[in-house]
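Morning F.,

Quick status update on the modeling queue. The single chain you submitted on Monday has been processed. Sequence for confirmation:
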Amino acid sequence: MADADEIVARNDERLHRMNLADVARRGRARRRQMAAENAGKRIKRASFVGGAVVTVLLLWGLVIGPVGTTGLILAVLLGLAGMVMAGVWNSNVPQPQDLAQASPTAMPAATEAWLYRQRLPATAAPQIDAIGSLLATLETQLQRVPATDPIAQDLSRLLGKHLPELVERYTRVPADQRTRTIDSDGRTIETTLTEGLQIVAAELARASDALAAADRDAVVVQGKFLEKRYGAGGMPTG
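Structure tokens below.
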């Protein structure tokens, strides 16, 4: 029979996995929302280009004269090409070097945008979703701490260096070798990636918890103050 310490450790591990699973569910919802917003922006850009082409044709016909059949065909083709380019073009895709140079407050959003665009295996989706959800929380938390804060500096190293290195080194491995067994325990390159992402998610959760510790303590203190001042006899008279 397992001793008490082993049971406690196993329960703690289970609770930790459950917490990250809940975070991953929120991350999936966030990713769907971001995808919908991105699609909406692409449609708006394409619609703007199409409207601009129609406006130019109308103005040309009113001011200069008829464009003719050839001109109309060319305008339609150029307009369609412009709409396609506007729909697929995205100038805000961050690169790994951008992550390393980003400020602590900008790094979570940049990391999330970069990570979601990486071609990683489906087995890593829960970890990626958990990381995305935690980054959204940290983005707000880091705005309230200075860049010199030790936690902010640790996160800068994790997000600006170690996480990109893990992902980039994985993507350099040929696809047919990523599921090849590399250890006697059955570990593969893909397994190593997912476990590394799991560690990143756990570290982000720890950093978020540490950043919130002061606020949690302040709520407890304020609650005790209100209870002491107003809880027993109502509003003080003096």
